[in-house]
Amino acid sequence: MAFSETFPLQITLPTSSFLDIGTVVAITVFVSLLCACIVIGHLLEENRWANESITALLLGLVSGVVVLLFSKGQSSRILVFNEDLFFIYLLPPIIFNAGFQVKKKQFFENFSVILLHGIFGTIISFCLISLGAMFLFRRIGVTALKLQDYLAIGAILSATDSVCTLQVLNQEETPFLYSVVFGEGVVNDATSIVLFNAVQSIDFRNIDVITALNLLWTFLYLFFTSTALGIAVGLLSAYGIKTLYFGRHSTDREVAIVLLLAYLSYMIAELLNLSGILTVFFCGIVMSHYTWHNVTASSRITTKHAFATISFIAETFIFLYVGMDALDIDKWKGSHASVGTSIAVSSTLLALVLIGRAAFVFPIANIYNCTVKREGDKIEVRKQFIIWWAGLMRGAVTIALSYNQFTETGGSSSTEHSLMITSTIIVVLFSTVVFGSITKPLIGAVMLRHPKLPSSDETDFTSLEDLQLSFIDKGGPSNNSSNHPITRRSSLSMLIKYPTSTVHYFWRKFDDKFMRPVFGGRVFVPLATSSPTSPRDGTS
Amino acid sequence: MAFSETFPLQITLPTSSFLDIGTVVAITVFVSLLCACIVIGHLLEENRWANESITALLLGLVSGVVVLLFSKGQSSRILVFNEDLFFIYLLPPIIFNAGFQVKKKQFFENFSVILLHGIFGTIISFCLISLGAMFLFRRIGVTALKLQDYLAIGAILSATDSVCTLQVLNQEETPFLYSVVFGEGVVNDATSIVLFNAVQSIDFRNIDVITALNLLWTFLYLFFTSTALGIAVGLLSAYGIKTLYFGRHSTDREVAIVLLLAYLSYMIAELLNLSGILTVFFCGIVMSHYTWHNVTASSRITTKHAFATISFIAETFIFLYVGMDALDIDKWKGSHASVGTSIAVSSTLLALVLIGRAAFVFPIANIYNCTVKREGDKIEVRKQFIIWWAGLMRGAVTIALSYNQFTETGGSSSTEHSLMITSTIIVVLFSTVVFGSITKPLIGAVMLRHPKLPSSDETDFTSLEDLQLSFIDKGGPSNNSSNHPITRRSSLSMLIKYPTSTVHYFWRKFDDKFMRPVFGGRVFVPLATSSPTSPRDGTS
C-alpha cells in the first residue's frame, strides 16, 4: 500500500507555489528538452544519419553536462535513473502502441521466425555473453564477480532495444524486416526479463536437470498465460464497448476506457507476476483487431494518434533520461577503474553483443531456409545481415536490468559492480549512437544495391480480406496456379504445403463466423474504413 | 533536483516483477476503479440525481471501507492524499482542457461578471468565513486556533470546485450560466490560492495599510503576469507550429508538441511562482483560437478528444482519491473530537460557505444589473440562485489547501488541526454528494418553470464570424434597429452603449488584420471547419 511513497509529500518552501521547487525544475527541464527533441528531430527529418533517439540521447548528454557544471560536479540528483518510472509509466505505452499499430498479418505470418529469434536466439546470446564474459573478464583483471553476476550480464546484454528499432526500420518500406526485428524485440524483452529473474532467484549451489526443466516450464507458463491475459482483456474491452456503446454519449469516455483497460492489462500481469510486456502487446493487437472497430469514427482517429503520441513521448523521454543519467558522477567515481580497464570491459561486452547476436541470427535463418520450399520465402543473406545489425542496439531495458543487479540499496557499493554499470552505460550509448546512426544509411545501401525487394516483402496484402480474396481466386494462400475449389482434402494438403497461410485462412473463417459477431470488427461496423495500421488518413 | 524523490526506487521483492508490489496494487486498484466509474457513470447517464463525480466519490468511499476492513483498520496508506500529485499531474490537464473547450465568445462577453465574482466575490467570502469561524468556533469550544488558522480556513473554504460544476451545468443548454460559474471557478481558484499563500507568508504581528496594498499589488501582478505568460506560450505554439508545420511528417509529433507546450506553460508559471492555473487556462484559450487551426485535420480531432479524455480521467481520479482518502483512519483518530463537536464544526463551516457565497452572488448581480441598460442582459433572480447554488460544492483544491495548512511534517499533530482536516473532508463530501446531486434536478426545475431561456442565453452565436456578420447586418452588436454604417463616431457611441460587444468587434478586426496572418487561425487554414468548442463532429 505504498502509494504515498510513490508520490511523496514534498512541501518545504514557503513560496507562492505548493510544489517542491526541485520537482518543478526537473519537470520543466524535461518537458523543455522533450520539446527541443521534437523540434530538432523534425528539422533533421531528412537527415539520414540522425534520428529522434540519437537526438534525444545527445541532448540528454549535453543537459547532463550543463547540470553537472551548474552544480559544480556535486549534485547529480536530476540524473538518477529510476526503474519504476521506466517499467510503470514509460514501457507499457510504447509496447501497447507497438501491438496496436503492428501489421498483424505480417506479424503472424512470420510468427515462427519471430519466436525462433526471440526465444532461442535470446537464450543462445545469453549463454555466449555469459560464458564470454566469464573467460575474458579474468584476463582483463576483473575477478570479483560471482557466477550469478556473469549470468546476469548475459541476460542484461541480451535485451535488445525495440524502441530504437522502431525508429530505424520502416514498416511500410520493409514490412518483413520490420515485423521480424520488432516482433523479435518484444519476445526478446520478455525472454531476457524471464532469464534475468531466473538468474536472480535460482540457488546456484544446487543446479541440476530439474532446475533447468523448471526454468523452461516457468518460461512457457509465463509466455502462454501472459499472452492469454492480454487477449482476454482485449476481448473484454471489445465486448464491453460493443455492448455498452459508450460513444453514444461521449467520445471521451470511450477513449478513456480503451486507454485504461490497456494499462490495466499490464498492471494485472505485473500483479500476477507475469510478463506485462507480452500481455500489453497482445492486448494491443486484439484491441486493434476488434475494439478499434467498435468505437465511433472520432474515437478511432483519437485512439490511433493519441496512443502513437504517448508512445512517441515515452520513447523520447527514455533516451533523454538515459543520456542525462549517463553522466551521474557518483557511479563513475564508484567504479575506481582506470580508463584502460573501462574501455577494455566495454569493448569486450560490445564484442560479445556482436558475436552473441551473429551466433543465432545466421544459423536460425539458415535452418529456417532449409525448412522453406519456396525460394521467395527464404531469408537472404543481406536480410540476415540487416536482422543482425538492427538488433545490436541496447537501450533502457538493459540499463534498468543492470541497475537492478548491480545497485545495492543506497547506491552501488562494490567497485566491480559500479564498473559493470558504467560499462553497460557505455555499451548502450555507443550502440545507440554509433550503430543507430549507421543503420539507416546501411539499410539504404543494402536495399539500393538490390532496389527490388524480394517477393516475401511484396506479398503485403493491405488486409486479411485481400488475403481471403486471393485465396478464393487462386484456390490457395499463395500464387500457385491450382484452380481447384477448396475442399477438405486440398486444404489438408495446403496445410502441409503452406502451413502459415493456411492457418491464417482457417483463422479468418473462424474469426468471421464466431469472433466478430460477438466482439465486433471490421465487417460488423460499417463505419470503419481503415485500420489503425493503415496510413490511409494521409496524416500519420 | 529531487526527481528521484518523486519517483523513488522501490525494488524489494524477489518476484518475477521488478516493481514494488504496493505500487502495482495501488495502481491496479485505481485503474480498475476508474474503469468501474466510467461504466457506472455511463449506465447512470440518464439518471438525474447521479453524476460521475458523485459515483467516483461514493466508489472511493466504498473502496476505502474495503481497504480498511482488509487491513483490519491498521494500514491506510493507499488512502493518503497527496498535494503534489494533485497540483502537478491532475489539475493542469483539467484547467487546460477547460480553457481549450470553453466557448470563448460567451466567456469574454461575461468577462466583467466573471471577474467580479471571481475576485471580489472570493474576497468577500474569505472575509465572512474567517470572521464567522473566529466568532462561532469559540462558542463550540474550539479555542486553540490562531488568527492565521482562521484566515486560512476562510481561504480554504472560498475555493469552489470548478470540476464538479463542469459536470453539473451544460455548456450547450445554459451557456451564460456555464461561462459565469465556470469562469468564476477558474478565477476563484487563482484568487483563493493567492489569498492562502498571502495568509501563510504574512507576518501577522505587523499588519498595516502597506501590507494590504502589498497584497493587492501581489494579486494584480500574479493575475496579469500569469495571463500574459499563458497567452505568450499559446502564441508561441501557434507561430511555431504554423512555421515548422510538424504535421507534414507526423500527426503524432504535432499532437505531442501541443500537449508538451501546454504543460510547459503550467510548469513555467509554477517555476516563476505565478498562478499556473490562470496561465494554463489562458494558454488553452489561445491554443484553441490559433494553434488548433494550424494543425492537420487528424491532429485537430485527436487534440480535441485527447485533452477532454485526459481531463475526464483526472477529474474522476480526483473524486475517487478524495473519497478513498476521507476514511484515512489516522486523521480521525488524531482529532480526538466527540461526534457532537465534529458535527457542530462541520455544520458551522457549511453554513458559513452558504452564507459567504450568498453574501456576494446576490449583491454583485444586483449591482451589475444596475449598470446594464438592456432588460435581457440583466441577471434574473432565478439565475442568481443557480449561480449561488452551483458554486457551493467544495472539492480537491479545498482538501489540498487544508492539508497544506493543518498537516505538520509527518502527520497532523495538534488535535484542533486534525479536527479542521476532518471537518473540511466532511464539508467536501457533503457539499459534493448532497448539493451536487440536487443541482441537476434543481436546475431542471428552475428551467422547467420558465422553459424559455432568457435572451442573454439565446444570443449564442456559434462563432465570432456569426457575431461579425450580425454586426455588419445590423450595424451594431445586438438586435437594435439602427442601420447606419459603422463610422468612427457611431462606433464610439457604441462603445459607450454596448462596451463588451464593441470591444469584441474591434478585437475581431485587430485579430483578422494583425494576429491571424502571423499566428494562423480559422481564416488562414482552409481545412478547418469547426472549432474545439463546437460539437459538430457529432460525437462529443
UniProtKB/TrEMBL annotation, chains A, B:
UniProt KW keywords: Ion transport, Membrane, Potassium, Potassium transport, Sodium, Sodium transport, Transmembrane, Transmembrane helix, Transport
Domain (Cation/H+ exchanger transmembrane): residue spans on this chain: 48-442
Pfam families: Na_H_Exchanger
Transmembrane parts of this sequence: 21-44, 56-73, 85-102, 114-138, 219-241, 253-269, 305-323, 343-365, 386-406, 418-439
Annotated membrane topology: Multi-pass membrane protein
Compartments, record wording: Membrane
GO annotation, cellular component aspect: membrane
Source organism superkingdom: Eukaryota
UniProt catalytic activity: K(+)(in) + H(+)(out) = K(+)(out) + H(+)(in); Na(+)(in) + H(+)(out) = Na(+)(out) + H(+)(in)
GO BP, one annotated term: sodium ion transport
PANTHER family reported for this sequence: SODIUM/HYDROGEN EXCHANGER, SODIUM_HYDROGEN EXCHANGER
Protein name as catalogued: Cation/H+ exchanger transmembrane domain-containing protein
Taxonomic lineage: Eukaryota, Viridiplantae, Streptophyta, Embryophyta, Tracheophyta
